[in-house]
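Hey, sorry for the delay on this. The queue was backed up all week. Below are the sequences that define the complex (chains, strands and the ligand SMILES where applicable).
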Amino acid sequence: MTNSPDWSAHYRASDTPWDLGGPHPELSSRLQDGRLAPPAPGARALVPGAGAGHDAIALARRGWKVTAIDWVPELAALVGPLLERDGGRYVTGDAIEFDWSGTAEADGFDLVWDHTFFCAIPPDHRAPWGQRASTLVRPGGRYASLVFPVGKPAEEGGPPFGMDEAALAGALGSLFRVEEHAPVARAVARRQWREHWLEAVRVPLAVS
Ligand SMILES: C[S@@+](CC[C@H](N)C(=O)[O-])C[C@H]1O[C@@H](n2cnc3c(N)ncnc32)[C@H](O)[C@@H]1O
């Protein structure tokens, strides 16, 4: 998949308006009260488009073994060591096409946490990402997303490209069952567009 825009240039210039400087407050709240607790010790989480890693590190501090992937190599030195302390790591690469075979993560993840990743990729990459997600999340595992920017008209372009729960659920497809979708209780005040939460469970493949 093409790297467009030049995300590295944004980080080099500290032009990162999406960066909250800490984990998203809704994620923090759900980690704190146990709603997003790891299902078992050693449960694995993947954070695609992890950026400066605030969410990834928050997940790791709450017991998830976190793999963050982003195609900005400069972020590796910043985020990698903080994840390695808890058994995770930072991977430089394309979240949609990265080949996990032969890695510690080859058996998949119990959680994919998506915060402004789906809205960052070009809309024609959404279906390939959704298909990929269904192979990355183990049956019984979850795809949790901070759905943003809800209400942004498509003609305004992006990133961030406008999205909503239907767009994400459509890309994830029938191998995911949406269990929750609602406006977040703890939205980021300075964000111009609405924020929702979506959580979907990866269902097992039907055996005929
Ligand atoms: C809007 S930023 C969000 C970063 C982080 N999730 C946050 O909330 O601060 C989008 C991130 O996704 C990364 N990205 C976009 N497309 C990607 C892809 N196909 N594979 C890996 N990373 C990607 C960019 O490099 C950037 O760091």
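Residues 1, 7, 18-19, 49-52, 69-72, 94-96, 115-117, 120-121 surround S-adenosylmethionine (CB under 6 Å).

I'll add it to the shared folder too.

S.
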